[in-house]
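Bit of a strange request maybe. I'm writing a small parser for structure token strings and I need a real example to test against, not something I typed by hand. Could someone generate the tokens for this chain?
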Amino acid sequence: MKVSTLSIGDEVLFGEIVDTNSAHIAARLYDVGITVRRHLCVGDSEPDIIEAMEALAGSNDFVIATGGLGPTVDDLTAKAASKAAGRHLVLNDDALAHLQQFYEKAGRQMLPGTEKQCMLPAKAVLVPNPVGTACGFVLPFKGTHFFFLPGVPGEMKRMLEKTLVPSILSKLQRKRVVRTRVFKVFGLSETQTESLLKDVARPDQGLSVAYCVNFPEVFVKLRIEGDDETRLSALLDEGCRGTRDKLGDFLVTEGEDTIDTVVARLFKEKGITLSLAESCTGGMISKRITDMAGSSSYFLEGAVTYGNPAKTRALDIPAELIAERGAVSSAVAMAMARGMRRKSGSDIALAVTGIAGPDGATTDKPVGTVYLAMAGPSDCKAKQYKFFGDRDRIRAMTAFTALDWLRRYLLSI
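Reply from user aminoacidic:
Good idea to test on real output. This should exercise your parser:
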């Protein structure tokens, strides 16, 4: 089965927003065994939309188009599709009824011109929108079924799941079993990860392994495809066990979980408390911790001691130590962690200090020099890192590394 996507909108074409729709569609279809062949993007231009339809028609069984179905003057998708297919643009009674009901339920007055969303190609099949005002539609054109959906991601995803995926799957002549498992790795490069897992794939039996970098992690995707579900499930389970064994503690988590959810779950399971002292990350670690519901049960407090006077005032770090060793040093990082633990009364305290750049570097401490420290009931340890990239990348890497420290510590106790 041949499927392509078409993204419509100046804001997407000019890079003002990221086209997450085509990525989501491709990933969702991939999960059910359908590979998207081509992504095409055009602006809010009738001739360009028509030209794109012409280019995709005939060579695809289905095209999923998103964007340009709203009420404003630049929403031209329905009009262009009508012109391409040689159909009149007419008021769709079902779409109008949906729009009126939407406004009635919301207790709002429908503004003049809103009904423009209900002007669709004659005899087009309506695609209901359970969460928005603009319905989609299906239009056959030159042997290809074009599905037109709104560009709002939340609306598109619901309509894709409820209507489009079942419709496409119902037309598959041969049902294939497709299963995917995702493993998230931190601390190894993509090449190192591949080297560890070189024996996991069984291409002759339908089990493949793919790798991609989702900074700062490496994602490993095991995919199984075939006809015998029992055999394939057993093979996939075997591949997953091998992947876990080979990755060891570099494996952060699997599936939809993130390092943030893993750390939150471990803190609740272990029943210990945390405090943070941050310098170069400016509160990024605290934010990620407190983004998790229920974090108040284990996260006591955090301090952003960005300047040297703040380190002395808030954490009782001697000014002489900072002057002698430098704010970015192992000694100061450990003093920050100890001071934070003492002030907060937490079981453990983690501290970070570093040079995120672009200024502040010295010969022996270049941009990207970062120290992490952790103080516990019996000891305090610190480690130096040399991160690379711009300021945002260094700060993000520091925050993620701090979370990984917490993950590893919690797994060890």
